[in-house]
Amino acid sequence: MPLCSHETTVEVEDGGDGRLKVRIESTCEEVVRYAGMLQEVCIEDYSEIRGSNIIEKAADACLTPTCLVPLGVYNACWLETGMISRNLVKKMDTISIRFDV
Predict the structure, then answer these.
(1) What are the tens digits of pLDDT across the range 18-71?
(2) Residue 15 lies in a domain
């Protein structure tokens, strides 16, 4: 993320019980706190914004509204569950935000 010098990795894997296991590693203390709060999610969490633990826990961990980590969790969940095409992800390689100021 261009406005932040921290690095974060998000990994998601199917827990086999309808829940997804979430692993987040980061150089940011707030994101590390978030990672401790968000170790698994259910379909309601990654298919909705309102009431989602992905967002609620981000607020509880005091992540800024501009932090891209919660969006990374959504994308990782969608990829793991097939809601985003792996071929498309391989083709795109990266997602970025560009500021025209």
Answers:
(1) 899 999 999 999 999 999 999 999 999 999 999 999 999 999 999 999 999 999
(2) yes
How far from each other are the two terminal CA atoms of the chain, in whole angstroms?
17
Q: What domain range is 38 assigned to? A: 8-92
Residue-wise burial string across 61-76, b where 16 or more C-beta atoms lie within 10 A, e elsewhere: bebeeebbbbebbbbb
pTM across the whole model: 0.91
> Do residues 19 and 11 lie in contact, with contact meaning Cβ atoms separated by under 8 Å?
no
Rounded CA separation 80/10 (Å): 12
Task: Look at residue 88 in the predicted model and tell me its pLDDT.
Answer: 87
Which residues, including other chains, have CB under 8 Å from residue 51's CB and lie 6 or more apart? 44
